[in-house]
From TrEMBL:
Signal peptide: none annotated. It holds the Pfam family Asp_Arg_Hydrox. Residues 137-235 form the Aspartyl/asparaginy/proline hydroxylase domain. This is Aspartyl/asparaginy/proline hydroxylase domain-containing protein.
Length: 255
């Protein structure tokens, strides 16, 4: 077992050494599953009535503040889209669900603690570990390659000339986040703020798994005329980081 590290102990960006997946085969799989039709990516829009709308509603502040374009309606948006490969454990769908959204740091911590009276299973990423029918072929191979508990997995489409806003998700001691770029270009970047300094890095579509320190303030930008597609894998545990190599990044103020 690898010792669990916090956001302060981990780099801004990194990649997993000695692990590569064939991007051309992943693209063929996406095509066969109609996953290159980005109109299908509606899992973070409440109007889509997807099972994921519960997660969107319980994180309404984040959705409205960071992920949708300003002109879009509440809990909607077209320029940042996702389609999920995992879903909420069905046992929680039959229980009364608290879908209230409170973005204070203390409230977020309480709702993720199973020992708290404020525990909210819909907000807890650890409960999004039920694979759906999209987990087949290489997607299944990729997820089966981890010894850590896989939680929320989704394909994320970032529209041309759009950036999501800076935000903080979860400390890596709770959720470790890896990105597998599938369609990208050099004008697509991940950004992280550490000690009030902004850094950025590009994740190429070279088959590698890239680490993002989502416990730090971060955002994604696409300053190109082409859409960007990443497979985002969240997991509980850090065995995947035993071969983590820090990725070179640029201090934005020094560009």
């Amino acid at each position: 077992m690898v010792e669990t590290k916090t956001r302060k102990e981990l780099p801004n960006f990194g990649y997993i050494a000695n692990v590569k997946f064939p991007i051309e085969e992943i693209l063929k799989l996406c095509e066969s599953l109609d996953l290159l039709n980005f109109d299908n990516y509606n899992d973070i829009k409440v109007s889509s009535n997807s099972k994921q709308s519960l997660f969107v509603r319980v994180n309404a502040f984040n959705k409205n503040s960071f992920f949708k374009e300003e002109e879009a309606a509440e809990l909607e948006g077209e320029k940042y889209r996702q389609i999920y490969l995992t879903e909420l454990d069905p046992k929680y769908l039959d229980q009364p669900l608290d879908l209230s959204s409170n973005n204070s740091r203390m409230a977020r911590q309480r709702r993720l603690d199973p020992g708290s009276e404020n525990y909210n299973p819909v907000a807890d990423e650890l409960n999004y570990n039920t694979r759906n029918k999209l987990v087949t072929g290489l997607f299944e191979t990729i997820l089966d390659s981890f010894s850590d508990k896989i939680t929320r997995v989704r394909l994320a489409y970032l529209s041309p000339n759009f950036s999501i806003k800076p935000h903080v998700d979860y400390d890596p001691s709770y959720i470790t986040r890896l990105h597998l770029p599938i369609i990208t270009n050099p004008n697509c970047h991940m950004h992280v703020f550490r000690n009030n300094v902004e850094y950025r890095a590009h994740y190429p579509a070279d088959g590698r798994l890239y680490f993002l320190n989502a416990g730090l303030k971060h955002f994604a930008s696409n300053n190109s005329n082409e859409g960007r597609l990443h497979l985002i894998i969240d997991m509980h545990g850090q065995n995947s980081l035993k071969d983590l190599v820090e990725l070179e990044c640029v201090e934005v103020s020094k560009e």
